[in-house]
Amino acid sequence: MKKNSKVLLFMFFFMLFNTVVNERIFAMEENAFSFTFESIEGQAMPLEQFKGKALLVVNTASLCGFTPQYEGLQSLWDDYKDKGLVIIGVPSNNFGKQEPEGEEKIKEFCETKFGIDFPMTSKEDVKGENAHPFYKWANSQSGKNPKWNFYKYLISPDGSYSGIYSSMTKPKSGKMIKAIEKILP
Fold first, then answer.
1. Is residue 63 predicted with pLDDT exceeding 60?
2. Phi/psi of residue 136, each to 5°?
3. pLDDT value of residue 11
4. Rounded to an integer, what distance in angstroms lies between the CA atom of residue 142 and that of residue 123?
5. How far apart are CA 171 and CA 113, in angstroms?
6. Which H or E run includes 3?
7. Cα–chain-centroid distance for residue 57?
8. Which end of the chain is less congested by CB atoms within 10 angstroms, N or C?
9. What's the whole-number mean pLDDT along residues 168-183?
10. Cα separation of 88 and 132, whole Å?
11. Domain residue spans in the chain?
12. 71-78, long-range: CB < 8 A, 24+ apart
C-alpha cells in the first residue's frame, strides 16, 4: 500500500508540474493574433486573420478632441492597406464618457463623418479589470495603459508588440509613418 501511495503521489506531482510548464509555454507563445474581437457589425473578428500584416490598433471615441484623427487614420489606411497594414478601430467609453452611443450609431458616425472603411470592433473597455484581453496583453507588453482616446498600438506581422503611441501622435506623423514602414512585411 505504501508503494502505491508513493506512485500515486509521484504521478500527481508529475501531472501538476507538466500542467504548469504547458501553461507557461502557452503564455510565452501568446501574441496579438491570439485574440478575437467582435466586429462593429456583431461578427467574430479573430486577429489571426491578419497574420503576416502589421496592425495599428487604436482606441477611438466620437466626442473627443482627438476624434479628427479618424481622418488621418483613414488616410493612413488608404495609403498602406495594400502594403500590409491593417488599422483596427476599437470604440471605447473609458475616457470622459466620450463614446456613449451603441455600435450602430458609432458605425454611422464614422462612415458619414469620416468615410471610415477600415475594420472597427464593438465598443470595448481598454483599461482596468474589464479590459478586453487584447488590451490586457498589449498593456502588459508596453508596460502602459492608454491614458486617453486614440492611443495606438503597433503590432508586427508576426503578432509581437512593436510600440505604443499616445493621443498626441498623429496617425500620419513622421514618427508613426517611420515605425509602420519599419515593420511592414
1. yes
2. -60, -45
3. 53
4. 22
5. 17
6. helix 2-29
7. 5
8. N
9. 98
10. 14
11. 1-30, 33-183
12. 71/114, 72/170, 72/171, 72/172, 73/116, 73/118, 73/171, 74/114, 74/115, 74/116, 74/117, 74/118, 75/171, 75/172, 76/171, 76/172, 76/176, 76/180, 77/117, 77/118
Query: Which of 64, 138, 154, 164 is flagged as catalytic?
Result: 64
Superfamily of segment(s) 33-183? Glutaredoxin (3.40.30.10)
Strand 152-155 and strand 85-91: pairing?
unpaired
Is there a catalytic annotation at residue 110?
A: no
Mean pLDDT within 107-114:
98
Cell numbers placing 165: 503611441
> Helices in 30-166 by DSSP H: which ranges?
69-80, 103-114, 133-142
